Amino acid sequence: MYKRLKFFLIPYTFVLALVICSAQAYAAPILFKDKISLSRGTKTTELNIGTSEKLLVTIKAPGHDVGVRAFFETFTDEVSWDNKAKIASIKNNGKELVIPVSGNYTPKENEVVLPDGWAYFKDGKIYLKFPYFAYVFDRYAEFDSSSEEYQWKEKLEFLGIEYVDSNDSTAKDGIIHTSVHIKA
């Protein structure tokens, strides 16, 4: 009896394993994940957001991630949450950044959808994985005009971020000090 059971279980287990592996293989990779290195031991990311004339706000966020509302509300026209559609939206200069937290979202005219994996929903709040923004808007980065990095910086230009300058002093004090320079 056990031999017959084994005879049927082994192929079914194999098929199930193939299905699971196939589903994982089709999951969308996170854009630029292979180019981002996260410091171990980072306790806090400190974001100083401002223009060349004025510091607008300082945000201290645990780890590498920052709340979407806390980050964007200082320098964009509007930050909102659509509970029915489960999307956060950031409006600025007639365009809109959309952050869907469930399912696929088809953008409308003047909308840009944040890439998968750049944000997540936790405890009733949407968090931005800030290292991705820091990478795209890096002050000293020089991206080729045909690169995805350059194209994303262009797509997100309406947000008004001129550049991001980060100083990782995790080894010293556990903090990543970041300056987000907003266009005046």
Structure description:
By secondary structure, the chain is an alpha+beta fold. It has one domain (32-182): Copper Amine Oxidase, Chain A, domain 1 (2-Layer Sandwich), CATH 3.30.457.10. The protein is 26% helix and 35% strand. The protein has 5 helices and 11 strands. The protein has a 4-stranded mixed β-sheet. A 4-stranded mixed β-sheet has the order 4-5-6-7. Strand 4 and strand 5 (87-92) form a beta hairpin. The model is unreliable at 13-27 (pLDDT under 50).
Structural class: alpha+beta
Q: Main beta sheet, described?
A: 4 strands, mixed
Shape: globular
Strands in their spatial order, largest beta sheet: 2-1-11-10
Mean pLDDT metric: 85
The CATH topology: Copper Amine Oxidase, Chain A, domain 1
Beta-strand share of residues: 25-35%
Which consecutive residue ranges, at least 5 long each, have pLDDT under 50? Answer: 13-27
Describe, in short, the structure shown.
The chain is α+β, with helices and mostly antiparallel strands and 184 residues long. It is built from 5 helices and 11 strands.
